[in-house]
Amino acid sequence: MNVLSIEHVTKQYGDYKAVNDVSFNVPKGSIFGLLGPNGAGKTSLIRIITRITGADSGQILLDGVPLGDTRIRDVGYMPEERGLYKKMKVGEQLMYLAQLRELDKREARKVIDHWLEKFEIGSWWGKKIEELSKGMQQKIQFIATVMHKPSLIILDEPFTGLDPLNTNLIKDEIFKMNDEGTSIIFSTHRMEQVEEICKDIVLINAGQKMLEGKVNEVKDQFKKNQFYIEYSGLTSIQSSPIFDVVSDDNNKALIKLKSSANTNDALANLIQQGSQILKFEERLPKLNEIFISLIENKPS
């Protein structure tokens, strides 16, 4: 079942098509990567999903039902450009936003206190937003996004401005919410974060969908029949009718099998050359390689 379905969505500004007939599904309970370079159409699409703007055509379904104003409370959105009122104090800011999300004052205070204690920032209640560092503001924005327990959370570059410790803190909360059933859309251009966090992805470029699927299946689709080898017994290994040596340094090599060969053939040839195999594993491409290859229209 899908928590969110994007069906033939198009958005045009004058002569510029920011989103061009895009369709994809976000599986329920997934951490879903919405990927693309700057200007790809990610933000335009997110603004349509969150009903900040409307699509020119197509529709958005939440849990199989057209997304309307009555269901938008079920969506939490953390924009890349933070939306906090800098002159307001942390406590009154969060109370105000919580009540906009239909929490009563008593419930809002309880939830906010819980999150401030969880992040060990209870003393920030009376601080003005403008007094906080960018990373501190990031924490407050995250709390504002999740405190009403939406079923779908959209995080646009959520780790910007955070040091490694606080990045891991937010990351742990993302995993915890996901384990509890919350679906999460993670929008970023940082491919290493996507590989660590996301289960499914879609790649958007120039307003169009270029790729969609589970991370492991996408990587499998773009693999190049290459294998990492660690060995001893030889100073180097040699290309053969079975494989070509892509690189070989300090008894660590990368080989590429020829189309007619298999791993058993490669292992037999390596042993025949006199090597003792310590490690032999398939090299799957990094998402960043796939990303660059598709964006630049190069064969993978």
Key descriptive features of the protein:
300 residues, Rossmann fold, 6-stranded mixed beta sheet, 4-stranded antiparallel beta sheet, 31% strand, 2 domains, 9 helices, alpha/beta
What does this structure look like?
With 300 residues, this protein is of the alpha/beta class. The protein is built from nine helices and 14 strands. It has helices at residues 42-49, 90-100, 105-118, 134-146, 164-179, 191-197, 215-221, 263-272, 287-295; strands spanning 2-13, 16-27, 31-35, 57-62, 65-66, 75-78, 152-156, 183-188, 200-205, 208-214, 226-232, 243-249, 252-257, 276-283. The strands form three sheets. The chain has a six-stranded mixed sheet with strand order 6-7-8-3-9-10, sandwiched between helices. It has a four-stranded antiparallel sheet with strand order 2-1-4-5, with helices on one face. A four-stranded antiparallel sheet has the order 12-13-11-14, with helices on one face. It is elongated, with a radius of gyration of 24 Å. The relative contact order is 0.14. The model has no long low-confidence stretch (mean pLDDT 91).
Instruction: Tell me the major beta sheet.
Output: 6 strands, mixed
Provide the domain count.
2
Rg for CA atoms: 24 Å
Strand order of the largest sheet: 6-7-8-3-9-10
Task: Assign an overall shape.
Answer: elongated
* CATH superfamily (homologous) name of the largest domain: P-loop containing nucleotide triphosphate hydrolases
**Average pLDDT, to the nearest integer?**
91
Which consecutive residue ranges, at least 5 long each, have pLDDT under 50?
none
**CATH topology heading of the largest domain:** Rossmann fold
The SS-based structural class is: alpha/beta
How far do the termini sit from each other? Answer: 31 Å
Number of strands: 14
Q: Indicate the CATH class of the largest domain.
A: Alpha Beta
Strand content: 25-35%
Task: Figure out the total of helices.
Answer: 9
H and E string? EEEHEEEHHHEHEHEEHEEEHEH
> Mind telling me which CATH architecture of the largest domain this is?
3-Layer(aba) Sandwich
